[in-house]
Here is the input.
Amino acid sequence: MSASHFRFRLATSRKQESTRKYLHRNMAEVEETLKRIQAHKGVIGTIVVNAEGIPIRTTLDSSTTVQYAGLLHQLTMKARSTVRDMDPHNDLTFLRIRSKKHEIMVAPDKEYLLIVIQNPSE
Amino acid sequence: MSAKKHKGTVRKGKDKKDNFPSRAEETSAGTGHPDYIFPLVLTSATQELFGCRGDVDVSVDKPHKLLRKDDIIVDMRNRAAVSDFSVIKQAVLDYPDEEMLLVFDRDFTYGQSFYLVLTVEAKENMLRPPADVEGEEDGGDEMSETPVQKTPEPTPWSSLGSEREIEEESVMDTRPRLMYKFSRVRREFGAPPRFSDYHSGDVVSCPSYHDKSFSLCRMERETSVQAVPNTKSSSTQTLWFCYRKHPRNMCTQYEPRELEEEEKELALQSDDLRRFLSSVTARFDLAIQQNEIMNVFVDDWRNLGDDDSMFGGKVDTHLKEYQSFTHTHYRTNNTITYVCWHPTVSGVIAVAVSESLSFEERINDSTLLLLHPALILFWSFSDPINPQLMLECPHDVFCFEFCPSDPNVIAGGCMNGQVVLWDISAHVDKLQGGRGGGIDKHTSNTNVLSFEDRRVRAPPVGYSAVSAVESGHRAPITDIQWLPENFQVSRTGIPLENKTLVSVQIVTCAPDCCVMFWDLRAPRMGLNALTDTKQKSEQKSVENHGVSSTFKHLDLTWKPLFRVTLPKLDTSGEYSPLKFSLRACKGNGPAEKSVATGDRPEPPDYSQLRVPSAKHQQPLEDISTKIYTSTEDGEIVYTDWKLEKDNESGRLFSPKPTYCFKVHDCQVNTLLLSPFFEDIILTVGGWNFAIWKEDVMAGPIVRSACSQKKCTAGSWSLTRPGLVYIGKEDGTLEVWDLLEKTHEPSQSQNVSTTCITCIKPWTVSLRQQLLAVSDHQGTLHILQVPWLLRHPAANEKLNVSRFFEKEVERLVFFEKRRETQAREKKDMEAAEQRRKTEAGVAVKQVEELVEEAQKEYEDYVTLDRVILKDMGLTTHTQDISDP
Here is the structure.
């Protein structure tokens, strides 16, 4: 009785181990992608935002991040609804906002939002 | 309409009260006697008759005595009115029982010594419950707790008469209500109205009026009042502006939502995010690289347009002469030594005029000089012939400056080493009203151009204070500067915070090898007080007309705060400075901010200011105490003016300079900090000029080539970071654009015939910039700077700073190169040495080589002969080929 119980526990822990490894691999890949984007010349910051507009991962400081996330999330929703209103089969793929000082790029998705701020002219 | 029940039930109600007699008796009897108790007074006869004598038959312990009713009736019949019982005759007769209870009331609880119980139940209760209580008391010590703790059981409601009160007060209908209904006939609905006239007399109108007799005035009111704890309700939500119209809060305080760390981790590890990122990265790469390659939004046309002049057509870089001022009055050969624009009044420029005589001539003409003192003239653009204001100087002034916090105070340095102060607050109106006022005064003599009239009109203003001769410099003061308002220096040379926001300290330098710091305020009252007052009283008689007494406290007793000497770097001796430049010190304190916003304090009364004690001031840490000085011998010395303490003797002395560099061959006559960069310095001297950066110790970052004429003056441009004006000794003004070319000037223009002594630019407005150029002959030329020379190119500051950085790198590279070259040279020398030791062997080798060569040649000759023989060409050439 105890032996089988023990075996059961071993099995679950092995499964946990594998899922943990899988998750770590995921996370490593995510990190690597973000680092690659951040390494481009002129990139000031990168923010990953979830579907509700709450930042998940950022390279900027907290107050700036929160500001960018909230504002750009709303703008992206508005832009996406605009595109879909005109043609329901269409969808927003990329949003670039060019300002005097830098350029903000937003890529929307069903669940996430990736924001990159770049200063084009150094 | 309420019905009232008759009072027959009163008795009924009172009967119910008999249930409580025992309790009433136990508790207290102070409420008056109940109805069944009748207090009696029994005479002693009656007492004997009935056997209830007080304290004999009855006592406190045994107060009850049962009397037979019949006996009482007999007694009453016998004694009629005398009987004590006659009072209650009726009650006794009504008594249903045989025996009546008489209670001895020792304590007079009911007012008398005895009382008779009138009812049977009361008698029973009185007799029995005491027995019950006694019985209970005997047995029941254990039982006594339970009655106390027994929870009260619900008893059926027993009426005590309260429903009667409620019925009295309640209002009920006694009859059904009457209802009347008035309505109009149906056919008259919607019918057109029929109007008719009424005479006012026919109709009696009864308007309603307020009849006071029928107004009910509530006299009494029954309300219930409840005491409530003192609470207050208040809300914190903002008032909605016009509730219902704009239900909108004025402001809302909120906080952004954030995820917890675990949730973030979870999200980062999710598969979806990975997929999302991998799909989206490509788009980003494209976009970012697009931006990196080229900036699509740059407007090239706009940048092109910047370089053109505003009117198109030919490009005009010529400096036009705007005006020129010459004071031809006193002396013939005077020269302008220094020029300074008035900082606040536009269009006014001050010029220091002095004699251009050699030393011998000065000594010979010294008496003449005394009669015609040196002057500082104030010129205004409105009047090119006459100066607006003239300031008298004790001796020739070589340099002067306006005080940055109070433009009415001018400090100047004289030829004999004295520092002079002027206060022109009383005469400022002459400067400002120069346009209008001057013309008005001349209405009478507009045609007469006599110099005497004008001279009388404006006598020169005397100086307010002059420093003490012994303690000042011993050589002509060549440079004077005010310390900025945000800091001051203490006696020992420590920079302190200046809370008064008024510039009160001056720095001067002279070729007598020292730099001195002066303070405008009176020194702390010490032993000098007596001597000061004495001197002041002596001087009062010599007061000049028109001289202000602002600085009287300093006159002739002014001593410097401390002095800084410049010991030579490698040898003994000292440098003799000509010009100096303090590092621009911009603090970040509140003092600095208020100055920047423009609210300067009122110019204080300088005689009242005192040098504060250094203990209470806090030293400023971020002020750079470094100073650049240029010397007579053409060196640039970079040193620290903070005095160091000598450990052995305890005296304060100036440290050795950090470095010293000789670039110019002659006197360095200009040392100026760039208005755009804090650490770039221009020096002009000898036949070239140089630009230095503060932290670069290797040398100047830009050094111009030696020109053919001596450079006598120089200045930075106020608006263009890379533009430098150089004046030459033949009157040429050169414009050097560092971004264009550095080997020769971009433009050169002849301004006057003699050498240029001073160049000062001034921005009048956005559209006008003027350059004041003074020459050796005493003429001041005002030139207008063309658009090209005053408008900075796009990103000019950035380009200039990059240019300087490149130069710095070049210098660093050269240094490294020099080092490597030195090393290589050493190596080569070592190799040379080695080769020389093998010289003897080498010579021998040479001889052997020669022999070998000779042998080879002979072999070749023989070979040549053999070949020719074989080829059959030797028959007739053999004789010729033989040597």
Summary: The longest strand of chain A covers residues 43-50.
